[in-house]
Amino acid sequence: MKSKSAIVQDVIDQNTTVMWFRRDLRLEDNAALYHALKESKNVLPVFIFDTVILNDLEDKEDKRVVFIRESLLHLQNQLTDLGSSLLVVYDDPVHFYKSIRPKAVYTNHDYEPYALTRDETVRAILEEKGVVFKTFKDQVIFEKEEVVKDNGEPYTVFTPYSKKWKATLNAFYMKSYPTQKYFNHFKRTKPLSIPTLQDIGFKDVKTVFPERMIKTSVIEKYHKQRDYPAIAGTTRLSIHLRFGTVSIRKLVQVAKKKNEVWLNELIWREFYSMILYHFPHVVSNSFRLAYDHIAWQNDVEQFEKWCEGKTGYPIVDAGMRELNATGFMHNRVRMIVASFLTKHLLIDWRWGEAYFAKKLLDYELASNNGGWQWAAGSGCDAAPYFRVFNPELQTEKFDHDWKYIRMWVPEVDTDDYPAPIVEHKTARERVLKTYKAALDVNV
């Protein structure tokens, strides 16, 4: 029986062009794949279960790994029907690319700090061997400096950014890549085996993931229903956007026709991606650096109760329990629970961001970071620090009949439900005093 390295050597020779899939797990409308197929008649799709990333995941029942593998199986079925295959390896990408010498490697841009460093290392390794390494924009409509102020500076407020974004948008940027025209350019090979979850150190988790479907009926009503967590009023496409199982260009085409409010949500995603690119300090520091001087309470016991959904505030607890059980949380509820952690409990937004990073199916660094800093008041375009969500008023507005709450907190009306861990009025007064003390000194 051949070793895995021998199999890799057999299928990747100097006449093979590698299409390296990462956050773009689809054959349709894929920028790098289109260019690879157009420019080569011997393209082998490759996915690397990145050991650098996977080794950092503490939960070996991580639903996102299950989703990725299911998406790879879907890709494999499509490729097998075309007489080709997907090569899936479990390795450090740097080590993998040191071990092969293809004709060329094509992939799509990734913007997170680790990915940027990794890709530059891979580029250097391949170029030393004389191997072409080409990357393309795929997961956003506009990237980096494509939407900036007239003086070339990046926007730091969403509304003017979104106006410029919309003014810049035209048919060219929304046009799909017709990859299917060149499907006969995939490398002909027998199906290659895909590692099991056990092979890569994870366990299977029975999870029903959101459908890979653009529900136009939901999009048309989005502006009316999006704030009510008991209603299926959002598309649930965020996990598909995160891993590229749907095309952002296709979604923007639909949004332009159906609902500008939903389009704005897609633009928020690009806004935060742009912020991360231009202001990488936000990964570990507040966008507004003065906010790093806030005297957080960081009570570990209260943080654990927040994580478990046992704060005594029903809307907060419902959100946290939904997150823990499903990997999803409604966007309105995300704002409520984030405000509660940072404002009511005076716990550092980085603690909450890290917890969401472990649990969210749709986790991506830029949006998660941006959302948490917005809630804490420390980010660009942030809510003023003196805006403190009142969980009771939020409940009255968006879940007045407690339908969502009762779904996740069935004991809410019983003696088993805990008393509130903080009192709203007292917590509000404390956070305003604490923020003011830090900002008056450091503004």
Structure report:
With 443 residues, the protein is α/β, with parallel strands linked by helices. The chain contains 21 helices and five strands. It has helices at residues 4-11, 31-39, 51-54, 63-81, 93-98, 113-128, 158-168, 171-174, 216-220, 222-225, 238-243, 248-258, 260-278, 300-308, 314-326, 331-344, 349-359, 365-376, 391-398, 403-408, 424-442, and strands at 17-21, 43-50, 87-91, 104-108, 132-136. A five-stranded parallel sheet has the order 3-2-1-4-5, with helices on both faces. Helix 13 (260-278) packs across helix 18 (365-376) and helix 16 (331-344) crosses helix 18. The radius of gyration is 23 Å and the shape is globular.
Keywords:
single chain; 443 residues; alpha/beta; Rossmann fold; Serine Threonine Protein Phosphatase 5, Tetratricopeptide repeat; DNA Cyclobutane Dipyrimidine Photolyase, subunit A, domain 3; 3 domains; 21 helices; 5 strands
